[in-house]
Every structure is written in structure tokens, then in C-alpha cells.
Amino acid sequence: MGGTWLASYTVSCAAGIGLAAVRASLAQRKTGLRPGSWAAAGVDTWLGPVPADLSAGWPHSMSAWDSRNNRLAWLGLHQDGFRGDVATAIEKFGPGRVGLIVGTSTSSIGRTEEAYSSLTPEGRFGSVFLQPAIHNPHSTGAFLAHVLGIGGPTMTISTACSSSAKALASADRWLRCGIVDIVVVAGVDSLCRSTIYGFESLQLVSRGLCRPFDEHRDGLNIGEAAALALLTREPLGTPRARLLGYGESCDAYHMSSPHPEGIGARLAMEQALHRAGVDPADVGYVNLHGTGTRGNDSVESLALAAILPPGIPASSTKGWTGHTLGAAGLLEAVLAMEALTTGLLPGNLNLEKTGGDIAYPVIDDNLEARVDVVLSNSFGFGGNNCSLVFGRAD
Amino acid sequence: MDLFIAPRAGIWCRSVSGWDQFCAALVAQAEPQTSPAEPVPDLLPAREARRAPLHVRLAIEAGTQACRGNDVATSEVMTVFASAMGDHQITDYMCRTLADSSPMLSPTRFHNSVHNAASGYWSIGAGNRLVSVAIAAPPCTFTAGILEAASLTVSEPGTVLLIAHDIPAPSPLDAVCSTRQPFALAFLVSSQRIAPQWRGMRLEYRGTASPWPTPEPGWLQKLAMDNECARGIPLLEALAGHRPATLAWPLNEAAHLRLQLGPGAGALPDPTSSV
């Protein structure tokens, strides 16, 4: 099997800051979700804020880059030695041979919301918010390129909740085309009013803990995360996993509801497995999109049942992290890759009784098993889908 | 990367609403004294076409022109949507509404607020289930768009439609964003020669600085300053003029993308010094 290499990765989310903390939460089946705990939102729901004071390590010299999203990216960057790994790669290959692709749905919109909530009497931005680098979709991409000293191409992919999964697919293409030798891939999305009130307006927010695939599931919990990975054409250091394949599709159906037969989801999974050269029966674990909404979970299970033989362990980890939107693709790709290296397959949290409309059963308790191939799904608004297949590095 | 580019592009701005009009304006060396109505692209059902945001309609109009102008089906192209700033009008609506203590957002406008809204509408309107990427990379969004489109068509079988589109920033966003005119362009690239008229094109990533290419006449120069997607106009000029060209667009302060467009139909000769 071919494939590009994951030389390094790290995640920070509600379930923990850095891999060790997240592993512990997964093993202990301890959710990071909390009731209505994020101050700026008046919506009755549970949320997944990162358990950290984001102002603590933020350098005051970087006020031009200041936003919650960039503070979260900064926090994530400094876990698991990731920043050092990037520096080592840049030193080895040269800054111009290293690219950067960020996947995000909200970028720094939280900062723009703040600016609007304190406009001057003339209706203009206050001086503290005059940050041209911040109020656009590429804010975190430009920020990370700046702090990491990336000299190659830098780009943001923003396709809602498939964003950072697709960042890996595009990074894989950049490497195979020989544009660069290394790509830093990031998924960063942070809590903000746009998404909390937006999903509330669509009646997709759960009043309690999200319960993916449960009979009584009633919506999602919004979370936030910074996930970062180093994708390389040749193995670098001690690689953690290989990206074997990806599949990308559109539903051609509706802006905010999945295709009822899961056609787009099926296409993405089929392509990813085909590209990876993996027989569906050889998949050892599936990290599902599994948001906890009635529609997504039902349709995703239908697509899964059409593609995979019965009995493959599958689960959503959103019961730990919430739906981290544009960061979910890479966050959950890393959680799937973790199953390759730790042998822990996280069983779905908050699943009491599987819904009658769920066509493919998910595991409701942690399993330990050696797995060689894992699949991760991410589906977004606009009917934009991406599936990823990873294999062991050894 | 060696590819082919379709001979006709799509374009929409305040004075030009199609490829033939753009070519005529280049020959006349003057901006047309017309103001086309805002596009209502027929790729979308009539109701959707009227309700869809301008940011979406501009993209779909330019993309539809590029496909139809080259007899390529809108349902059979992979797509890259490049927009530096996303939909400013919706950003303004969302942030204004959210400044209220108990905001009530429109669910439709919320789902239209995603950066890939145009991609979603295109997929639905064209019945297109192929890969679609929505990107941003200001101030180099157009450059990143070509790079993404090229790497996509070199990696996957098939033709890629690149659409670059942005709309002006309303107040107070105009204080932090310099987009002043609406603009969209679109063109098709493929690793295969789809039709005899498709022109050879070679792209190279280079780790050195480069200035922006500038369009010829004044009104197009102004457009390229007012909307970063219009920095792609020099490529459209070379296509319209049926002439070879070597162009370069910065990717950042220390790297650029070099594009060679062949003299006419057919592939470029084998490179002697391709990266």
C-alpha cells in the first residue's frame, strides 16, 4: 500500500489538551462536554470548550493576530512537541518546501462578532478591532504561517464540517504533485455566537448531552478544537500512521440536510477505500461523523450499511468533544489514527438504546484490539463530504 | 505541472457580463459603458436563483459561462471555489444580528453563511456530486486557486472548474477589507486535452519573490486593485488575445507560481527546466 506519512500530530479539544490528556479521557470514558458553560452564549445546551485559559500563554506582542481561534491554534501548536517538529522539518527541507493548509469553518468570526457588539457611535469598528489579518476566512492560516515560518503555499479550506478532512486530501495532492515536500495541516474552530445561534436556528442543538445514534438523540453539542498534523511524502522521524486514501463528494441535494439515502456519504467512503486499495472487510475501526442529529446519524448508518460488512467497530467520538465543525475532520482523523497505535477503540458515549432507524450498529463501550486500517467520516453543509483511510506506519 | 486550459473563460463585473463582451472590450481598449443587471443564473431553479446571495450568484454565473462556452457539462466538472473574504453581506447580517442580546438568526442565511455556499448551490443546481473545494488565502487567493485546481486535475481524472469570486465589503467591514467591486471569473483546466482548441499551460511553483502581474488598460488595473480575484485577469487577457504568455502570481513574500501559456492550441513542448 502506498500513501503519504503522518510524521507528527496533536489535538486539543474539550476532552483534553494534548494527546496524553485526550487518551486518558477516552480510556476513562470521561466526556469533556459541559452544560451551558461558555459565557457568551444564552442558548440552553451543552458545549465543548477546551479546558484551558486561552489568554494564559498568549503573547501580548501578537495583538494584531488576536482572536479566540488564533489563541486556540497557538495553544494546540505547543502540545506534543508539534512546533518543534515543524521547525525540524523546515530546517531539513527549507521553508519554501513546506506548505500549510488550514481547515476551518468559522476562522476568527468570533472576533468580528465582538467588533460588531462594540461599534463606535458612528457605527465603525473600534480601534482595537482594526485587524485586517483577522476578519477573513484565512485568519488562522495566515497566523500559523507567520508563527511557524512557512515559506511555501498557504491556504485555507472552508467547506463547513468537512474542512480539515479535505485539508488532508489537498495536502496529499500537493505532496504527490511535488509542489512541496511537507505540508502542515491544521483544523481549528472555536466557540462563537454564529455557530451556536446558527445551529439553534436550525433546531439542531441538543438541550442536554448529545447522544449520537441513540433512540432519543435530539441534536448536537458544539465544541472547539485545534488539531495539527505534519504530512510528508517520505517517512520523517518515527511516523505515526499513513494516509492511504481519501474520498470527496457532494450530495447535490440540500444546503443543510444530508441526502436521505446517503449517496454523497457512500461515494466519499467508496472512493477513499478504492484509492487506498483496501477491502471494506479489512477496515478495523470507523470514526463516524455521528453528530447526534436525527438526520445525520440515520443517513450515515445507512451509507455505512451499504458499504461495510456487518460487525466492524464504529463509533462517534462527539460525546467526548462535541461537534468541532471545521476542526472535526482532522481531530477525528487523529482519534482514528490513535486507534492504530494504542489499540483502544472508543465506544460511543451516551448511547443507551440504539435508534430504530440506525442501520449499522455502533459500539457502546471501549474495545481493545489491534487494527491495521481505520476510516474517518466528515460531512458538511452544502452537502460536502470527505472520508479518509489511514493505515499503520509499521 | 503540465495541463490544458479551455479557450473561453467566464467573467462578470460591473461593466462586463460575459466572455465575448470582455474580448470586445479588450479590442476596443475601453470599458463598456454598460451596467449589467445582477446575474440570476439559470443553473439554479428560478426561486433559488432569485433568493441566493449575490456572492453565490456571481460564482455560478461565471462558472456556467465557462462550462457552456466550451461545451463542457456543468455536472461533470470538479470545482474549486476561491473567495478571499467569503460573503461579506451575510457576515454583516450575522454579526449585526448576533450583537443583539437574544438574537434570532434566519436559518437560511445561517446555512448560506458557510464559505462553500456557492459550491453547495452549484452541486445542487448542476446535479454534480464530484469533489468540490472552497478556499481562501488572501492576499493570494487567486494564486492558491490555480494551484488547487491544477493539483486536483493532475491527481484525479477529469476537468476542474476554477471560480474566483468576491463582493464589496459593506460598512463597517470596509475598514478591515479592501474589496470594493464585485467580480467573478471562471475557467476550466484539465490534465487531458479535452478539445483541439484547448491550450497548453505549464505551472511551476518557485521559491522566489515575484510582483503581481498587471492587466493592460486602466479600468482593469483598477478592478485588480479593488478585488483580489481580479488579479487573475492577465491570464484572461492572454486567453482572449490568443497569444503566448508567461505570468507569475505571488504565493507569499518569498514564493510564486509561474504560468506559461502556449502560443495556441496543443501541448507545450517538453520542459527543459521544469520543477
Radius of gyration of chain A: 19 Å
How many helices of chain A in DSSP terms?
A: 11
DSSP E strands of chain B, number: 9
Fraction in beta strands of chain B: 15-25%
What separation lies between the terminal Cα atoms of chain B?
Answer: 8 Å
Tally of extended strands of chain A?
16
Order of helices and strands of chain A: EEHEEHHEHHEHEHEEEHEHEHHEEEE
Q: How would the global form of chain A be characterised?
A: globular
Biggest pleated-sheet summary of chain A: 11 strands, mixed
What characterizes the major β-sheet of chain B?
A: 9 strands, mixed
Provide the helix percentage of chain B: 25-40%
Individual helix count of chain B: 9
Integer average pLDDT of chain B: 94
Oligomer: heterodimer
Description:
The complex is a heterodimer of chains A (394) and B (275). Chain A has 394 residues and is α/β, with parallel strands linked by helices. Chain A contains eleven helices and 16 strands. In chain A, the strands form three sheets. In chain A, strands 1, 2, 5, 6, 7, 9, 10, 11, 12, 15 and 16 form an eleven-stranded mixed beta sheet that branches. In chain A, helix 6 packs across helix 11 (328-342) and helix 8 crosses helix 9. The model of chain A has no long low-confidence stretch (mean pLDDT 96). Chain B has 275 residues and is of the alpha+beta class. Chain B has nine helices and nine strands. Chain B is globular, with a radius of gyration of 18 Å. In chain B, strands 1, 2, 3, 4, 5, 6, 7, 8 and 9 form a nine-stranded mixed beta sheet that branches. At the A-B interface, helix 4, helix 5, strand 6, helix 6 and helix 7 of A face helix 4, helix 5, helix 6, strand 4 and helix 7 of B. Strand 6 (154-157) of chain A pairs antiparallel with strand 4 of chain B.
